[in-house]
Amino acid sequence: MAGFMIRRLLYMIPMMFVISIVTFIIIQLPPGDFLTALTARLASQNETIDPGVLAGLRERYGLDQPLIVQYWKWISGILLRGDFGQSFDWNKPVSELIWSRLNLTMVVSLITLIFVWAVAFPIGIYSAVRQYSVGDYVATFFGFLGLAIPSFLLALVLMYFSAHYFGLSIGGLFSPEYMNAAWSWGKLWDLMKHMWIPVIVLGTGATAALIRIMRANLLDELNKPYVDMARARGLSETRLLLKYPVRVALNPFVSTLGWVLPHLVSGAVVVSIVLSLPTTGPLLLSALFAQDMYLAGSIILLMSILTLIGTLISDLLLAWLDPRIRNG
Amino acid sequence: MKLVRDLPRQAACAAVLALVVGAGWAGAAVAFQESPQLKALVDAKKLPPVDKRLPAKPLVLAPLQSVGSYGGTWRTATFGGGDSEIERSIGYTRLVRWNPEWTEVIPDIAESFEVNADATEYTFTLREGTRWSDGEPFSADDLIFWDEHVLRNKEITPSPPAWLTAGGEPVKVEKLGDYKVVFRFKAPNGLFLMNMATIRGADILAASPAHYLKKFHKDFNPEGIAALVKQAGAADWVQLFNNKISFPGRWRDVGRPVLDAWMLAAPYVGTSQVVAERNPYYAKVDTAGNQLPYLDKVTIDVMEDTQAIILKAINGEIDMQNRFIETTDARPVIVQNQEKGGYRLFIARPAWSNALLITLNQTHKNKVLRKVFSDKNFRIGLSHAINREELNQLIYAGQSKPYQAAPREGSALYDEQMATQYLKYDVNLANRYLDKAGLTTRDAEGYRLGPDGRRVTFAIDVLTGSPIQSDALELIQRYWRTVGIDMQPRPTERSLIFARLQTNENDGIGWVGGGGYDFLGLLDPKWYFPHEYESSFATAWGLYYQNPNDPNAEEPSEEAKKQMDLYRKVQQSATLEQQLAAMKELLAITRDQFYIIGTNLEPDRVGIVKKNMRNVPDVIPSTSFYMIPGPVKPETFYYEN
Description:
The structure holds two protein chains of two kinds. Chain A is built from 17 helices and two strands. Helices cover 79% and strands 1% of the residues of chain A. In chain A, helix 1 (2-28) runs antiparallel to helix 16 (293-321), helix 5 (94-129) crosses helix 13 and helix 15 runs antiparallel to helix 16 (293-321). Chain B contains 24 helices and 25 strands. A four-stranded mixed β-sheet of chain B has the order 2-14-12-11. In chain B, helix 15 (376-384) packs antiparallel against helix 18 (427-436) and helix 23 (558-572) packs antiparallel against helix 24. The longest helix of chain B has 18 residues, at 576-593. Chains A and B meet through helix 2, helix 3, strand 2, helix 5 and helix 7 of A and helix 10, strand 14, helix 11 and helix 20 of B. Chain A: Pfam families: BPD_transp_1, BPD_transp_1_N. Chain A: It is a multi-pass membrane protein.
């Protein structure tokens, strides 16, 4: 087990290096640079930028230097000083922009994950045990419905309803009065009041998939001889179900844990934009449009690290859960 | 001044009195009033009395409709991280500003200004007793600090802005007295005051509070600067300083001294809410001697999505705004929900000459296309082939009218012929012109062949973010196919369009046209002559105007050169009359050259304003150059109870 851990950790180092290079190349691929994007953005609103100011910015941001120099500046800053560079668009250190959003992204992701599991897990078991019953069909129907509705549309509809019928303010995770306030019980409650929309919107699609996976896996297990044998020995139905078949069927839940983070971050971009959530998705998108390379690069890099860590955690959990993997 | 019937009597009397006395009073005779909020602070000895906070002769603003009452919050929303809504709503304070009608430049923080005959010297007289929001006096020394230690500091300003430079030298500010300065240019700079009235002008006063900024300046604080840089997490002191004075960094600096009506209380960061509160030292009063602003607070919600802003509006969470909710597709929703949202509408009149211009690059790298595009008959033919009335009905819901790329009616630069030539939809006429352009042979599918015997085909780039323009171009593609011309609309991401323009790689673009109002034409003439690479009807000539040595630049035609000389004349004239006269000459050449094909006028847009909010005009020019809503004096907005 220890050897397995160390090996995995060592693999991560060259992986990160490659990711950082690929990230940087991808960000440089579109024509022009941050200042081209800035000029274009202003022009599309019929604004102009002073040519003198433009020349000054180009020099200050070091955009006139070769790519390799720009890359080295960025990566050496991260490795040596933990400094992710400056965002051009915000004129602020990247780290300042990212951390607060990353925290909220994690909170939203975790709550969504818990919601998805809490819904999918019991329904999946029920659907398997009572296969082809009315309950199974109803659950499946709603699950597929959730999968089929485009999430941004659902977000708009829920936003409209919450504003229209509950009088909640539109968008974001906080009401105006708590937006800039320090953390308190009131603020937490306010967050919860806003949180249900993104959680439901982000969760619906994943829920359907997990219900089906759970159902299919459990059906496989339930028809195996050891279940009959346990039943013959007089084990209670609940105990019998949870002791082995469910444990085995849990495998996909755990192995998807590693992808949940990147999925929630990337898949949730459109939803986050529609809901004006202060998460990393919209920040990444606007950074890519603005060609704000240090910001976009740092977000992608951090996301990649999180994905690697998530995969590692899910592998460890799987090993703990399933002896076949541990000793295989 | 109109007096509204249900005005509180006291205020009405005061207003009448003010009318009798006249707006420019002698000072001491009138006691100023202030908001109850500030009164409480004065009574608690936390703030000097209002007479001590105001200049002896403050600027008197005549409210549009009526003298107002104190209190209330103005709620607006903005989009994304770098948008300048905040500059327009609560940052529109300068030495000089636009008047609300957008016909002249008027004094703002400066009491008065004078220009010499050759537009090289601008003398400003400041108001004695004007104070920063922290109570420190504002004087000539502040402007000297900006000039010597910000503008002329090579580290902070590696290359000075063009509007502050003339004859290759940045402006030199000289002190004539504690409240009198002169801005000296090496060569004439006729558009200086107009530029100051736009978004650019904010940079001067933002970098002027010397008493506050010296701490962050290496020359004044050599010992302590390193610690401050570290504390702020800035890369170096230059960045730290720039974040205090430039947009958008300065809007994250709570406590920064300003001369604006409201000062920052919660910063402009990410998705959140910006809050600004009343500036107790604001140096303007109404005609009844009440210190402005009337409204206690301004909040700006920073949203990630424009749809969410529209939802906010119809939900009644926005009090006065036009940007982000004035798009053509949002209009029905905004208009229908007036009752529910508790707002009325005002007209935000686009300052643009055209909803969609089509340019054809006459300096194309492809010799054949260049020859075809350069033929005026070709462009006239294409213009006659467009069914503008149908476009108007299908795309602009009949709210628009056929129009060429020309100044709007009612502006000083308006030229009827220029605005209306070649508008008639007539396929036969179009075909005759295209034949005249020498494109007489056609291929099996009916497309015309160019001089090289191949089909004339080209792409028009249009913004992916403007579906309405794409739709219009699709229709135009059909109209032009009827006369045998193959045009491909090409929705393209913004930066890519610009990357192509910078290297003269474009066939042409479809874009919204500026220059509808006089000042916009003067300040942003790119659609009237080859002024820069964005003048996509002759990109290489535009590059030449900016820098003749640019690798992609080409020597312009005689007419274009004449226009360039005329625009230099505009820049060197000291009075608006002279500038407009030179501009008219320039536009006459534009008219005869017919560089650009216009389609329809941009329809009037609507903004919203709370039903009981007063002193908001019914029609406001809408463009970033005008800084909507700044010039219509938000400090005089108030709620009627």
